[in-house]
Design brief:
The chain has three domains: 73 residues, Arc Repressor Mutant, subunit A (Orthogonal Bundle), CATH 1.10.10; 167 residues, 2-Layer Sandwich (Beta-Lactamase); 95 residues, Enolase-like, domain 1 (2-Layer Sandwich), CATH 3.30.390. A hairpin with a 4-residue loop joins strand 5 and strand 6. It is of the alpha+beta class. The strands form three sheets. Strands 7-3-10-9-8 form a five-stranded antiparallel beta sheet. The protein contains 14 helices and ten strands. Helix 1 crosses helix 3 and helix 6 runs antiparallel to helix 14. The chain starts with a helix and ends with a helix.
């Protein structure tokens, strides 16, 4: 149902007042600000309640926004509000540090997001199905250790260390590296993982036994769970919503298991802000919270997702443009770093 101008203004005021105070909003305060009688405000609020935008937690209390009320508000402001130049400059300064690895860059952006919003933030690495091997490097550490560095085509880096009982000759390392790249470069992570056992049995019969532990550890890298990094969870503990033990338990479960966070990034649109308010998700533990995500993509390849976890009465006017700007900056840095890696690789081959 369409809202007239006064109802829209009233609903916006209720949401922003409730965001600020976490207390049900009564008619007296609003009547003074709008310059109309309390009776008129009560009638308008009753109409908004009937339309599903407001609710009254207690008979004697004022009103608070419903999920539908927040959704109306978010849809109106999501493309309207942008950061001020000084706010952008502040974020630029926080993100100016050079970071060598993509995942560290994403974690740094996640931490900045948490600090600026005072909510919990998180990042999720891309699914292995979206990753293809671009390069495998073997680096000798000491006399009996080899580090495997797996570089994906979307810039994601995975690494692990293999320890041997005896020293590994340098010539073997070069042979192993060339062989693994010849066999695996260009293959999808999932494809390698699903076929690794027959691959070892068929392809490596005539190879040095020392390569087998490398394949096993490579398989472990591919089998590792999607990484979820959470920052600023302690920010949430000061919120009045989490004073309720049931709400606190649900939040801690979300942070501990991370299952809901991983599932949410499979939905939504790449390169866009995705807002999930309370019951809009299928997860009961998230019904008291809002999740906002921004999915990163380079050359049609997912490179990860950053997100915010906060109460439904989140400061959307601040949070949405903040995560959008940080996401855009992160995307720009990733593309620049990715371009540099490709250029260096080309020069090395030439």
């Amino acid at each position: 149902m369409e809202l007239d101008e006064r109802k829209m203004k009233l609903l916006e005021m209720v949401i922003e007042e409730y965001t600020s105070t976490a207390e049900p909003v009564g008619s007296l305060k609003l009547s003074k600000e709008l310059g109309v009688s309390s009776a008129t405000i009560r009638n308008e609020m009753a109409a908004l309640e009937k339309m599903g935008y407001l609710e009254q937690p207690h008979t004697s209390a004022g009103r608070i926004p419903t999920t539908e009320g927040y959704r109306w508000y978010v849809d109106r402001i999501i493309s309207e509000r942008s950061l001020l130049p000084k706010e952008k400059a502040s974020i630029d300064k926080l993100l100016e540090q050079e970071v060598s690895k993509f995942d560290n860059l994403v974690k740094e952006a996640t931490s900045v997001l948490s600090r600026l919003t005072n909510y919990a933030s998180y990042s999720v690495a891309p699914e292995v199905d979206d990753c293809t091997v671009e390069d495998i490097k073997l680096v000798k550490l000491g006399h009996n250790k080899l580090m495997i560095i797996l570089l994906a085509d979307n810039g994601i880096v995975k690494e692990t260390v293999v320890t041997y009982d005896n020293e590994i000759p340098d010539k073997n390392i070069e042979i192993f590296s060339n062989y693994l790249n010849y066999k695996l470069r260009g293959m999808n992570f999932r494809e390698i993982y699903d076929n690794i056992t027959p691959y070892i049995q068929i392809e490596l019969n005539n190879m040095n036994d020392n390569i087998v532990p490398l394949i096993v550890e490579l398989n472990n890298l591919l089998a590792s769970e999607t990484e979820v990094y959470v920052d600023g969870a302690s920010n949430m503990l000061a919120l009045p919503e989490l004073k309720k033990s049931e709400t606190l338990k649900k939040f801690l479960n979300v942070i501990e298991t991370k299952d809901a966070l991983k599932e949410l990034v499979k939905t939504g649109y790449d390169g866009n802000i995705n807002v999930y308010i309370g019951q809009e998700t299928s997860f009961d533990e998230l019904k008291d919270f809002t999740i906002i995500t921004y999915k990163q993509k380079i050359n049609d390849k997912e490179v990860g997702t950053i997100g915010i976890i906060g109460p439904k009465r989140m400061n959307y006017k601040k949070v949405i443009p903040t995560i959008k700007y940080i996401g855009d900056m992160l995307q720009e840095k990733m593309e620049k770093k990715r371009g540099g890696k490709r250029k260096n690789e080309k020069e090395r081959r030439e």
